Every structure is written in C-alpha cells, then in structure tokens.
Write a sequence for this structure.
C-alpha cells in the first residue's frame, strides 16, 4: 500500500511541477554557462600571451590580423628585453570553402613550432584526454580538440585526411569549453606544407626559387611569452616600438576588445538567465502555492483541532522542503536528459550546448528550495488568516 | 465547564454581497456535565451556532464565555490553545484527512496539544476498540464506510477528553446499533467526566436522550 503521508494529495503533481520549473531553469542556465565558459576561455587565452603577426592584411587566419611574419622578425622580437620566448605559428581555417561569417567557432588547424615551449601562460599545457600532445619532429601526427574529434568520430590511432595528406591521431584533448575544442594541432612544418598546397600563388612564390623567402618565413603569426615580473601590455608596446613591420596585439586592449565584441553574448546570457529564473521561479512558486491552497480544508481541520499558525508553518515548511528537494532532483535529471538528447542530436556538428556546472546545480537547488519555502510560507500565512470554518468551507 | 453564549449574531455574504443573517441575538448556557440537544429546520443556523461556540469562526456580535474567561475575544494563538484542549468537535461531514490513516486521524487531536504520543496512541486504540473501528486503524478514510468514518471522527473529537463536546449530527451516518454506541459513549462522558455536550440532530430518538432540548428557529432561539 502506498504511504500517502509521503505522497499527499496533489504532491506528486507538485513534485513534477517543480521538476519542470527546475529543469527549465537548469537548461537555460546550462546554455548560459556554456556561453560564459567560451567567453572566459577566450579572455584567458588573449591575456596569456602577446600575439604578433606580420604587417599587412592577413594570410590564412590567426589570433591577430596581419600578413606573413618572416623568421628574421621573430628573431628581432626575441631580442626585445623582457621577452622569454617566441613561438612561430601557422593557423589555417580547416575548410577554406566556408566563410568566417557562417560560423561562430570556426574549425582551425594550428601549426606549432615545438622547439619552443608553448608561450601562453594560461594554456601552457592543453589537457589531453587520450594519447599525448605533439612533440618536436612529429611529422604526420595530429592532436585534435574534443568537439573536433567527436564530430568525426576520431580516436587515438585513427587517421584524418587533411588536403592530400593523411595524419595519424596521436592525442585527443580534454574539454576546454573554448576554442581548442574545435581545433586540430600539427607541427608547424606540416601546417606550412598544408598552406602551400592550398594557396597556389604562395606555392609558386616559395617553390619557384626566385625570392628570398624560406619555408621558415611562412608563419601567420607568433605567440610571445614574457619573463617573470614583466607587464605584458608594456612589453607589447615595447615590441611595437622596437620592431618595425609587425602587428602587435596588446593583451589588455585585446581583452577589452573581446569583452566589447562579446557584449551581445553577455546581454544574451543575462536574458537567458533572467528568463530561466522567471520561468523556473514562476512555475515553482505557482505549483507550491497551488498545492497549499488545494489543502486549505486540511489546514482548517488542523486549526480546528488546535494547531497554531507556527505549528502549521513548521509542518508546511517540512513538506515544502521535502517536495522541493524531490522536485529539484527530478528536475536535474530531466534537464540532463533534455541536454543529453539535444547534444546527441547536434554532436555531429561538434558542438556542446549545455554545461551543467556544480555552481549552476547548487544555485538551482538553493533557488528552488528558497522559492519553495517562500511560496509555502506565503500560502500558509494567507490560509491562517481566514477562520478554520471558512477554510473548511472553501476546501469542501 | 460552564459554557455561555451571549447575544450571538452572525451573517454571511449573499450572492450579491449583501449580508444574509443566520443567527441573531442568541443566548444560551450549558452547565458542566449537561447534555443539550439542538434541533431546528435546515438553514436555521445550528451548525453556525456550533462554529461560534467552538471558536471556529468569529461572531459578528456577542460573546462566548468558558467559565469566567471570555474566549471569543482571545488572541488567535490563545484560541488555538482553547480549541485544542477544551473543545472536541464532531463534524457533520467527518472531516478526516485523506492522507492519514484512521489511527493517524484520531491521533491528530493529540499532536497539537503536545500530548505524549505513546500514551495518546494507547488511549486512541482503546477508544477505537470501544467504538468498534480499531480493526480499521490502518485504513485510509476513502477505504472506510460512512459509519466507520463517523466513529473515527468521534474518537478524534474525544481523545483529549475535552470538557466541551460539540457534535454536529454525530449519528447521522451510522446504523442504529452504532448510533447507540456513540450515544452511550457521550452519555458516559457526561456522567463520568462531567463533559458538557451540545449536539445538533434531526433524529428525535437522539434528542430525547439529552438533558435539555433547544429549538432554533430561523436564526433565533425559540425554546430552551
């Protein structure tokens, strides 16, 4: 026999009502959390290194706009006081037939000069989930971001064909929730080869033997690390003043620029969060209040038997707490299932839409408990204001 | 306990919002250990009179006194204490809580006055045995017949041995045999414990067992 004191009349409905509210709050919150992590990740990246490119309007793609950055310029930068290391890089769009405008997070191939340690202070070592990261001399090897791998079903030991070359997957990165999730990493030599294949004009310039350019000059940019105690913005300005013919990003300025350019997403985030709170909060408080008013007759009977307002409030808060915790638990599961279902559907696009962080779960739980308590208190105080006889009549 | 109602009046709001008088200027007195029956046609205000005396709703006019205490003017909290310790109600429609078993419903009376749960439990079972519903203690109200619910409601009303018992048609839904059991229980309480009883009934065979009969006309006491 079902113990009805554990599942009083209407409380199962209440529990599911709360679950729907919490699930809505969590799902919207998880999407907002996803956007936040992406923006924060980008910000951490730009603040972790000084990005440099050659003068001009750009070749390939990169963290900074600019043209080719030849080897001698990299050597000049390395001699600027305060510079700890300069890593030449080649960054290319994976798919050259797609416009940058068509995608928010473009899939990229990043070629790294692995003779130099990764200069970015915040992403010095990218977390590897399986296999290993690239080593110097790893020709034909590739490490892929988690979404990049998921979109293609790649695993360590697998093969990925880029252009006319097969790459052996030696590592899959762990989730970073920012740009590296959709990137592939190769040695700079392989990236240069890929670039030459893709750009016939560049190929003729390098292959014709008429110019003064060497393969080592084929860089889309460089990442600069600073020595301990050096202020990155000051060093960036010093590089700018010392080395001519390059584009230098000032980390602080770039961070501010990033914040400005992502203002839309921040607003969107605020909107999603507010909507989540509103929908979840209204649903939850409405359901709890309705459940209390539905039991108005029982309140009348208990007051007729001598229950004081405080005794009733204590009973109701206990019930509301139990039902809010239960509803929140079901809501978490429901939101997770919704998120899982949607991600399973769009995972082929290599995207993660939801981040159910512990802070979000804690917030949703605290929010639902607080709102449940408040709604229950409000309903109890309203009901105890009317006489027991009237409560019994209304609930009949 | 001496119970007195002085000049009691009550109106309800009609459909158009206008006041509809139900009771007007009703005076009554129930002596300690007195069994009083109230009779009268439907709509004469019998149940309302019980509600006012039992502090279930405030009177528009008049006062209710228990001995020398004017209980009708006590604070809400104090009225809760009086309801829990001094008054037992048997409602016409039983008013059992659906989510609680028969025994839990009976014990509800003890919960809010701070009685020891074990002692109250023993009393409740003894009472339910006398009223022949102990075998149904684990059942929910929806699983009980109307007569059984009536007897469970009666057990709840008298569990704390209140000095005043207000009963609205306590035998309305039980067969003659069980009606006699309830009436015997009431009589026993009046004689042995000095309980004051005000009982509303339509059944002449019930009212004749009372010490005194009050006849309520439309909103007014006609005799008593």
């Amino acid at each position: 026999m079902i113990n009805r004191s554990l599942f009083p009349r209407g409380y199962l409905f209440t529990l599911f009502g709360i679950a729907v509210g919490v699930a809505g709050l969590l799902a919207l919150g998880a999407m907002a959390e996803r956007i936040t992590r992406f923006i924060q990740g980008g910000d951490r990246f730009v603040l972790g290194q000084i990005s440099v490119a050659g003068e001009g309007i750009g070749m390939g793609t990169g963290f900074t706009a600019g043209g080719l950055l030849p080897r001698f310029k990299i050597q000049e930068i390395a001699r600027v006081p305060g510079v700890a290391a300069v890593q030449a890089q080649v960054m290319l769009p994976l798919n050259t037939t797609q416009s940058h405008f068509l995608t928010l997070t473009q899939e990229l191939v990043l070629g790294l000069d692995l003779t130099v340690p990764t200069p970015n202070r915040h992403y010095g070592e990218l977390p590897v989930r399986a296999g290993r990261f690239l080593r110097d001399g790893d020709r034909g090897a590739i490490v892929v971001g988690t979404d990049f791998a998921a979109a293609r079903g790649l695993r360590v030991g697998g093969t990925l064909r880029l252009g006319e070359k097969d790459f052996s997957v030696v590592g899959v990165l762990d989730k970073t929730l920012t740009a590296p999730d959709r990137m592939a990493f190769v040695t700079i030599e392989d990236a240069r080869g890929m670039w030459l294949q893709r750009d016939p004009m560049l190929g003729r310039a390098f292959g014709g033997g008429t110019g003064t350019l060497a393969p080592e000059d084929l860089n889309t940019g460089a990442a600069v690390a600073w020595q301990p105690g050096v202020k990155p913005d000051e060093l960036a300005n010093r590089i700018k003043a010392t080395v001519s013919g390059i584009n230098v990003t000032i980390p602080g300025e770039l961070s501010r620029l990033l914040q400005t350019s992502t203002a839309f997403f921040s607003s969107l985030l605020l909107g999603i969060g507010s909507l989540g709170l509103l929908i979840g909060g209204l649903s939850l408080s409405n359901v709890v209040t309705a459940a209390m008013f539905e039991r108005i007759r029982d309140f009348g009977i208990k007051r007729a038997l001598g229950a004081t307002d405080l005794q009733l409030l204590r009973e109701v808060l206990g019930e509301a707490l139990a039902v809010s915790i239960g509803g929140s638990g079901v809501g978490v599961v429901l939101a997770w299932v919704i998120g899982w279902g949607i991600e399973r559907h769009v995972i082929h696009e290599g995207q993660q839409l939801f981040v159910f962080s512990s802070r979000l779960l804690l917030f949703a739980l605290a929010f639902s408990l607080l709102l449940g308590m408040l709604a229950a208190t409000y309903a109890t105080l309203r009901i105890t204001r009317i006489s027991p006889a009237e409560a019994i009549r209304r609930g009949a | 306990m001496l119970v007195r109602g002085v000049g009691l009046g009550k109106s309800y709001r009609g459909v158009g919002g206008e006041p509809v008088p139900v009771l007007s200027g009703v005076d009554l007195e129930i002596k300690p250990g007195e069994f009083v029956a109230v009779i009268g046609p439907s709509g004469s205000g019998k149940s309302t009179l019980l509600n006012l005396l039992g502090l279930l709703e405030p009177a528009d006019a008049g006062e209710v006194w228990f001995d020398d205490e004017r209980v009708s003017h006590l604070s809400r909290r104090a009225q809760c204490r009086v309801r829990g310790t001094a008054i037992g109600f048997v409602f016409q429609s039983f008013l059992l809580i659906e989510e609680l078993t028969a025994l839990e419903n009976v014990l509800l009376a003890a919960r809010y006055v701070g009685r020891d749960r074990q002692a109250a439990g023993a009393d409740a079972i003894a009472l339910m045995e006398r009223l022949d519903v102990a075998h149904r203690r684990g059942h929910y109200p929806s699983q009980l017949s109307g007569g059984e619910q009536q007897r469970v409601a009666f057990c709840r009303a008298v569990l704390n041995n209140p000095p005043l018992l207000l009963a609205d048609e306590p035998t309305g839904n039980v067969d003659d045999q069980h009606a006699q059991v309830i009436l015997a229980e009431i009589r026993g309480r009046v004689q042995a414990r000095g309980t004051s009883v005000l009982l509303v009934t339509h059944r002449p065979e019930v009212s004749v067992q009372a010490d005194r009969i009050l006849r309520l006309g439309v909103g007014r006491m006609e005799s008593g």
Summary: Chain B has seven helices and ten strands. The radius of gyration of chain B is 17 Å. The CA atoms of residues 117 and 130 of chain B lie 20 Å apart. Chain B touches chain A through 28 residues (CB under 8 Å).
